[in-house]
Amino acid sequence: MSWFLLAVVSTVMFGIQTFLYKSSAERQCNKFVVALAFLTTQAAAALVIFLVSGAGAVNVPFTFILAGFLGLIYFVKVISDLKAMECMPANRLVPIVSSNIILVVAYGLIFFNETLSWIQIAGTIVVIASVILINIQPSKLLNKNILKIGLLFAVISLLGGAGTRIINKYAAVGTSPEFFNLIAQLFMVFASLATFAVTSRKKDEQTTQKCFKESIKLGILTGIVGSAAYITYLYALTTGPLSIVSTVQTLSTIVTITLAWLIYKEELTRKHFFLIMMSVIGVILLRI
User: Fold this and answer.
1) Shortest CA distance to 64 belongs to which of 151, 134, 136, 167?
2) Which of 17, 22, 82, 280 is deepest in the core (most CB within 10 A)?
3) Predicted model pTM
4) CA atoms within 13 A of residue 5's CA, in its CB half-sphere
5) Residue 180, class by beta-carbon neighbours within 10 Å (0-12 exposed, 13-18 middle, 19+ buried)?
6) Comparing 12-16, 36-40, 206-210, which segment has the lowest mean pLDDT?
7) In degrees rounded to 5, what are phi and psi of residue 155?
8) Which residues lie below 8 Å from residue 282, measured CB to CB, with a gap of 6+?
9) Which range is least confidently modeled, 54-58, 180-184, 192-196, 220-224?
10) What's CA 158's distance to the chain center, in Å?
């Protein structure tokens, strides 16, 4: 399977993973139970992938350093997202955070000596514009001081998102993807537990037995899909250019919006439909 097809497959799965998060909220599942089941499943899946693949422990110190940085940056990014959402609406936050792909593309071109044809540059611009515009919605006027704080955390999240993408590229070309996936998932578990410890306000959240089972099922399903998406993404980065693979991966938002329209009948305006079609055209241009 080519790196481009792997990038597309991982993008679809990342979109499904985000949709499953949304489904857990729609069904009023216990967030902590879902997250715990998700993290446990993803770590277990990473271990299975590592054992089945027969991959060895390559560049162990380098792998642990990268995975440690990934966990730290992930922790900072999640906290920044949560703080930013307290100060500004999601329709302003998402376009800002999504624009981290611009930094990632620039990094790939400069530090990995990647080259893009004029057609691929056009495709990159179309995809980035589509992802940012599809998340922009009218919002009420906000307190300027609160908005400034929100923008600060949004920029930190933007930099964190770019950092995680770049670290994944170094891991894909400098270590075993299967081994890095395993170690990274363990660090992500620690980072997520730290996030829960910092942000949790309700320690005794009431959950019915039915809701508990539903939360476990969705968490496990999300973990399986998320693990497959991440390892596929690493495989794509092994031979594929960071600039194109990461650009394609941003389209997971489009997948989530489309699934929400199909399953939950959420509104899909002409603007959304147009931008989805433009993103498809952008992907085609990237492949030419």
Assistant:
1) 167
2) 17
3) 0.85
4) 2
5) buried
6) 206-210
7) -65, -40
8) 123, 124, 125, 126, 127, 130
9) 192-196
10) 12
